[in-house]
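During the second year of the project, the team shifted from modelling isolated chains to modelling whole assemblies. The rationale, set out in the original proposal, was that interfaces cannot be judged from single-chain predictions alone. As a representative example for this report, we include one of the complexes processed in the last quarter. Its constituent sequences, exactly as entered into the pipeline, are reproduced here:
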Amino acid sequence: MDIKSSNITPAPGKFWFTLDNAAKIFPAVITSEVTSVLRITAVLNQPVRIKHLQKAVLQVEKRFPHFRVQLKEGFFWYYLEHLPQHIPIEPDDKPPCRKFPNGRLLIRIMVKGNSLSIECSHILTDGSGALEFFKTILIVYSCECGAKIPPEYQLNIPVERISEEEYEDAYNRYFKAEIPPMVKRSSAFHLPYPLKPVPRFTVLKAIVPLEQIKEVVHTKEVSITVYLTSVYLYILQEIYESMKGVSKYKKRKKLRVQVPVNLRNIFPSKTMRNFTLFVMPEIDLRLGHYSFDEILKSVYHQSKLETDEKLIHKNISRNVGSERKLYIRGIPLFLKSLILRMKYYSLGTNQYSGVLTNLGKIDLPDETGRQIDYFVMTPPPPNKRLKINCGVAGFGDKLVLSFGNVTQSLEFENKFLQFLRDQNITVERETIE
Amino acid sequence: MVQCPNCGVEAEENANFCPLCGEPLMDKTTENTALIKSGRNRQNEKLLTDYHRLTGYQKRKIFWQISGLILISGIIITLLIDFITHRDITWSKYPATISLVLFINFTLNTFLRKKMTLMVGLSFLSVTGLFILFDVYAGDTGWEIKLGIPILLAAYLTVFVLIFLVRKAKQKGLNVIAYSLVAAGLFCIYTEGIISIYFRDSVYFGWSLVVMVSVALIALLLLYIHYRLKKATDLKRFFHI
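Output from the structure prediction step:
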């Protein structure tokens, strides 16, 4: 897909552009339960001042014209078309991460008391892209409330001068032809819990002091992401081993956790659209029981290995290469969607038992940061097979874990948080409906 | 700054309602209790007054009442005039019957709009009745069985299918005209066929085929304009591969 095939400059009239490589899967699999809507919440120290927020959003949406788009169906592909509507600010009194209706923007802002959230379809951008947008809103909001912001955060850029790079499909830039295809992985273990009746999605939030977890992580000499991924695998192993009797779930003995990697940290890119790939650290229970330290060591090395630049190139090329083939491009959209829906499970969810996505430590100008207590990153609702996922965000002195769950059981979360408590980490938990 | 008791955000000091959720923020002890209803209720009420007070059904019912008054008084007046001048019912039975059938059809359209098939069926029966009555008035020539009713049936079926297609069309515009043209062309074909059976006892198509070909060409052009040219600028994005 040549980037020039889309009219990407925000010219007067309706501009449009194609979906980026990662976004192409989502329209085919979205349902009212699996919505592909991610959510980032900032909990402020004060109630949100609604007038100031409205002013801030009006300013920021001008700076990011490519976020004001709707999803349209073409004959061969979906595409995004400019929709001249304002980004809606809504009371946050409904379930989180609801699907966006057709013919509307793919982004909304939700407010309730002290909490200010952005919900955004994964078709539009990934967690880091949404965070960048959200940070801009928070900065301008704090300006409206009277804060002084350093000049590097100013957003007085005329629309004509917005770099095209912000809206490019960055996967394309790092595509290299003629790279060997990847080998398909075997199916992984999935949690056995029965599903909740619809609407299924609930979120459990756990707040952890950043200092305490850093101390634990430092003694192990790993990063927070590696540490939490290892806890994830360790708890999965514990649940696997505690399962009694014969179960179809027990046949699959590989435990894998998908950890999204922000490619902007590896390849220079200013893109505001999806630019993420995954590493999938795994442990194979056929080889016997793993101790936590063994898992930690293995996850550490697997992550290092899989984030190798050449390997990532290979994965990008595999993903982009398949969408460039003419015989795939020529399939009408409805057939393509059918195929994508099947592949989504066989090449996607089947291969991993859990997802842990870490937004990292969020930095903001001091005066803006002073208004904010902590951030919550809620990944898109997990599907029926995955059942549970986990989002992590660090800000100030707090690290917040947010578990999305569609099952009737809280066993996984309880065990996960108990594990952290056993390491002398205080955990404060709270359910969000 | 005041805090909204419903959604918890801070609004301007002088705001009467929360800009986010519409909750009233004014002092509840004052006497403006009538104003103090939840903003959402007020919005719902506004919607009700604007859109729901007169439903389509109510509007049709008013039209039905007025047209009923005019038609029935028309029937009575024509019958009376005829009777006074001729001491008998002569010409007035025609306008009276037509008015009656019109009134029956208005009634059907008012009360059976949801039941399309029943409405069209009954309407067909009423017009059939009209034809039979005309034949009775004219002295039993038998034309309605062989000519009138078959053409009427063809017309009703065509219109029925046309309405169905128009209702199903997602975008309405030139395509509606195109469908109507094709329907008219088809109707011409039936009519010629039925007439040829009536007069010559054999099926023969002549002029109606010419009509059909010409309307089909125009209809195709209209459909092309409607579905393609209108989206000419969108074609590139629609077919991007």
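The interface with chain A takes residues 1, 3-4, 6-12, 18-21, 237-241 of chain B (CB under 8 Å). The CA atoms of residues 161 and 240 of chain B lie 35 Å apart.
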